[in-house]
Amino acid sequence: MEKPYVMAVRKLYGALDSPSTMRALASLFEHDVEFELIPVDFQAGELKKMPSLSPFGELPVFQEGDLTLFESRTIMRYISHEYGKRGEEQVYEIPKLQGIAAAWIDVEDHQFDPPASKLIWELVFKPQKGLPTDEGVVEEEEAKLVKVLDVYEERLSNSVFLGGDKFTSADLTHIPSLYLLMKTPVKRLFEERPRVRAWYRGVMSRPGWEKMVEMVEKVRA
Amino acid sequence: MAVLKVHGSPFSTATMRVVSALYEKGLQFEFVSIDMKVGQHKSEAFLALNPFGQVPAFEDGDLKLFESRAITQYIAHEYASNGTQLICPDSKKMAIMSVWMEVEAHQYDPHAAKLCFELCIKPMLGLTTDPAAVEDLEAKLGKVLDVYEARLTQSKYLGGDCLGLADLHHLPTLHYLLGSSAKKLFDSRPHVSAWVADITARPAWAKVIAMQKS
After folding, report:
1. Is there a contact between A102 and B101 if contact means CB atoms under 8 Å apart?
2. pTM for the structure as a whole
3. How confident is the model at residue A7 (pLDDT cuts 50, 70, 90)?
4. Contact B209, B167 (CB under 8 A)
5. Do B200 and B95 fall into the same domain?
6. ipTM of model
7. Is A151's CB within 8 Å of B52's CB?
């Protein structure tokens, strides 16, 4: 029987090799939100043709009817508040609990992401572009990441997930960096810390992870 | 009501961000001064409040929070019915405000903070301002402010028609930059200039600045 044509209400403009796009994808998949991915060739300057979409010229951009959002963490927060599945919401209604989850979303942004993204640049993107890895930078940034992971290890002794007793955006927001770093020797830093190890393996078993990876890797196959 | 406490420095932009939200809401709070010159922010007592050893840290009864923008969001939600409304009840409008909150953190603040360091902090520490760095940072911040100028032709405030956290979060670095040669970046863009004049004139903001004098 013919499948009825369903018009996509939601669009995600993104690049499948971009961690920011991966964050938005993970959030959409985690909440079972239907959307159409519109790949944008960032390197070919395609985004510059759409200044009204993204005034800072960055991906991803999310459109839902007449709502246009950019900044992956905004898209992630909007999806989690708007499309929480009843009984499985990934936000807290009580401000005190949501405040804690929000703090750990910002921890990923301000503490984890700086060393993580530099390591991803050195160990994943540079080799892809045929550029040499700077081992000095790798050593420096691993030392910084270790300090952050030590705090995570301590946090996870008091809390099942980073944001609280349930999986939230505070955990999900790490998905792009975890996905890329697990393919590098940096993986050992996560493996060496038992609670961090259990936590990241739990994140890897989420539908948001699995479906994001499937979409990203299908393009490469 | 439980005691609200802010642990920080009245000169720290992140601390000022939190204090501005408390004054806008008309909330009473205790200010615990953290002496960073003697490393108090790395003491065990402070690390128990913020394991990353950065000001500010915040307490509301048994709730302990850190990360200034998470703290302001908490205050805005928990005390929604007090003082100035800083968030939008409508989820789509809040999403738009949230975009500009992330813009402040990712596009504006990196350049603004470094410019503050060159133009305001370095002289205080007896270090020399790097003119090449200033020129580079002013160019980058200028490009961000061009986007702000376009945005503010369509919207009274950055986050939407009403003042909110997206605007408030800019105040601390704005305050320092307005006292420096970087002021020209804001003055030369009419909508940005009007927005700056509006938000810096708020009585709650004057109270934050007054804390630096006591």
Report:
1. no
2. 0.95
3. low
4. no
5. yes
6. 0.95
7. yes
